[in-house]
Amino acid sequence: MTAKIRVTVRVPAKVNVQLGVGGLRADGFHDLANVFFAVALGDEVTATPGTPGRGVTLGCTGPDAHQVPLDDSNLAARAARLLAAHHGIEPDVHLEIAKAIPVAGGMAGGSADGAAALVACDALWGLDTPLPVLLELAAELGSDVPFALLGGVALGRGRGELLEELPVTGTFHWVFAVADGGLSTPAVFRECDRLREAAGTGAGVDRVPTPDPSAALLAALAAGDPVALAESLTNDLQAAALSLRPALADCLEAGLAAGALAALVSGSGPTCAFLAKDAAGAESVAEALTASGTCRAAHATHGPVPGARVTG
Ligand SMILES: C[C@@](CO)(OP(=O)(O)O)[C@H](O)COP(=O)(O)OP(=O)(O)OC[C@H]1O[C@@H](n2ccc(N)nc2=O)[C@H](O)[C@@H]1O
Ligand SMILES: Nc1ncnc2c1ncn2[C@@H]1O[C@H](COP(=O)(O)OP(=O)(O)O)[C@@H](O)[C@H]1O
């Protein structure tokens, strides 16, 4: 592959159609049965050559751009530096993020930008890094980053980074209700552990069995059956997200009242996800949610879609 002068990568957000959370491990992570589903709502990351010696520079546009850190902690910047270090080259690049994924919303927006930056810099610098190596670098950046490279629907084991693609038929229609303000992922996992301790079940790996993927959920995905999928959606972090943000219950109820087949918190929240029967159903649930005053905005979208891909 030859180096390029400008590379744009489109990358999807995710919803977890099953988020089974096992016990707290000694390393501070939880073992998961995490069924990721990539949706068309996504970010774009454009890489252009940087000033030699200046390293990674960043820009971000979009309504929530002010919430995105533009320092060294940005996952896109970390991804560019990690890829450059792996190849022993200077990470001189400018990354421009067009942000549509809610920030700190439980839709893996930062992870998506990290994956997009790996793909964009790989093409810009003409490196041709094999996918298995990109997946390893992605796992170093965060548990959700490898899935953003793959897209589609996949089961994540371990802390979510060990991926197995899952068969899926057709297209499912979703609505995402964006909340005011985000939720911290570590805080939601901590609240999940606190609720387990308070219920007397314990929170450690010795007390909580490692979850398995639901056979009914996998069958619903393979069959392309939204009604069956609606009956199988689960999120073990939902109680914790609702405990930290009780008002989310009003949003979930408003979507169900508007005709959604099912409602759940997306990942660690606070974005709420609604499965609809079809595209028209999703549009009408989104309109009703917007009018309900229980969320800041609601977007109809669909999936599954591919992972981080060069568009131009
Ligand atoms: C909950 C999920 C569900 O897909 O996504 P979000 O809702 O945040 O998008 C993920 O597990 C989030 O993955 P990600 O956001 O990449 O987390 P990481 O950076 O790897 O870890 C951040 C922190 O989350 C907690 N963490 C994360 C993953 C995991 N399996 N167990 C954990 O306990 C740990 O406290 C960890 O220090
Ligand atoms: N490119 C990025 N986009 C958004 N947030 C980022 C990014 N890089 C780092 N972050 C940090 O990651 C935190 C979690 O953001 P995000 O990945 O959007 O949410 P979640 O982990 O809930 O899916 C943000 O609060 C922000 O401080």
Entry keywords:
312 residues, alpha+beta, Ribosomal Protein S5, domain 2, Alpha-Beta Plaits, 2 domains, eight-stranded mixed sheet, four-stranded antiparallel sheet, 10 helices, binds 4-diphosphocytidyl-2-C-methyl-D-erythritol 2-phosphate, binds adenosine-5'-diphosphate, nucleotide-binding, 4-diphosphocytidyl-2-C-methyl-D-erythritol kinase
Explain how this protein is built.
It is an enzyme of class 2 (transferase). It holds the Pfam family GHMP_kinases_N. One of its GO terms (molecular function) is ATP binding. By secondary structure, the protein is of the alpha+beta class. It folds into 2 domains: 7-167, Ribosomal Protein S5, domain 2; 172-303, GHMP kinase, C-terminal domain (Alpha-Beta Plaits), CATH 3.30.70.890. 34% of the residues lie in helices and 28% in strands. It has helices at residues 75-87, 109-124, 131-141, 145-150, 185-198, 215-223, 226-232, 238-244, 248-257, 279-292; strands spanning 7-24, 30-49, 56-61, 93-98, 153-157, 162-165, 172-178, 234-235, 262-265, 272-276, 297-303, 309-310. Strands 1, 2, 3, 4, 5, 6, 8 and 12 form an 8-stranded mixed beta sheet that branches. Strand 3, helix 1 and strand 4 form a beta-alpha-beta unit. Adenosine-5'-diphosphate binds next to helix 1 and helix 2.
